[in-house]
Amino acid sequence: MKILTIVESKHQGNTLKVAKAMAREVPMTITDVKGASNYNLDDYDILGFGSGLYYGRYDKELTRFAKAINDKPRAAFVLFTSGINAYSEKTDPLVNLLKRKNKNVLGLFGCRGHDKFIVFRIVGGLNKGHPDEADLKNARDFISGVAESYENAKKKKGAAIMDCLFCKIINGEIPSTKVFENDMVYAFRDISPQAPEHVVIVPKAHIKSANEITEENVKYIAAIWEAVPAIARQLGIDGDGYRVVNNCGKNGGQTVDHLHFHLMGGREFAWPAG
């Protein structure tokens, strides 16, 4: 399990102190946004994001970085230190941003930090001594829980994903004839074509079937349908038309447990199908 934690800790070093405490419990690489460019994010299993809260907001550079990363499914966690403000996992803006980026957020950690920002400087700062030993112990317990959650999820889903034919094709473990690719969709030629042009279109997220489409992953379905006309034009079948088919479950004829669509064209199809 490899963890990369990106931390912007600009005033008192509170958040970096917490991240280092976590790293003593569970090994991880810690860097800032600028340094993150030296790392290939795809080499890491879990991404951590942390900063102080400034007027209730995460560091701007960290937020921009989180917005810019790709939508490849990956586990993540968030940490913050704060003088006054605090979030729950449900209301945290960075957590919600990462979820929209298809990240499985394994947890949110926050604690008080010594705050000498502007007005608090007059009285020597707010939350003197924080993060303290109790805060750091909580941080170590938190990251242990994150690691445990990741390993448990890996055991539950790992076998299915690791054995998934289409996941292996997306990751380049199995060769394919690529027709189209973007951050959310991969399309390749079917090895047993049922038409002159036959392409399989899959989401890059491991969604087992149409029955597992949710509010969180429905964006992949939208991305697939946006890609369909572009692929059809690329194949030269947009003029006379084409067929798009999704097989769901045993009775639907689904043979690979990864949601996929067949785009077929180049000949006239009969109806009803099957």
Which short descriptors sum up this protein?
274 residues, Rossmann fold, five-stranded parallel β-sheet, HIT family, subunit A, elongated, catalytic activity, alpha/beta, HIT domain-containing protein, 2 domains, HIT-like_sf, 10 strands, 7 helices, HIT-like, five-stranded antiparallel β-sheet
Characterization of the model:
InterPro entries: Flavodoxin/NO_synth, Flavoprotein-like_sf, Histidine_triad_CS, Histidine_triad_HIT, HIT-like, HIT-like_sf. Residues 165-274 form the HIT domain. It holds the Pfam family HIT. One of its GO terms (molecular function) is catalytic activity. The active site is at 260 (tele-amp-histidine intermediate). The protein has 274 residues and is α/β, with parallel strands linked by helices. It folds into 2 domains: 3-162, Flavodoxin domain (Rossmann fold); 165-265, HIT family, subunit A, CATH 3.30.428. The chain is 32% helix and 22% strand. The chain has 7 helices and 10 strands. A 5-stranded parallel beta sheet has the order 2-1-3-4-5, sandwiched between helices. A 5-stranded antiparallel beta sheet has the order 6-7-8-10-9, with helices on one face. Helix 1 (14-25) links the parallel strand 1 (3-8) and strand 2. Helix 1 packs across helix 5. The longest helix has 30 residues, at 133-162. It starts with a strand and ends in a 9-residue tail after the last strand. The relative contact order is 0.11.
Topology:
Blueprint: E1 3-8, H1 14-25, E2 29-31, H2 33-36, E3 46-52, H3 60-68, E4 74-82, H4 93-100, E5 103-112, H5 133-162, H6 165-170, E6 178-181, E7 185-189, E8 197-203, H7 218-235, E9 242-245, E10 261-265
Parallel strand pairs: 1-2, 1-3, 3-4, 4-5
Antiparallel strand pairs: 6-7, 7-8, 8-10, 9-10
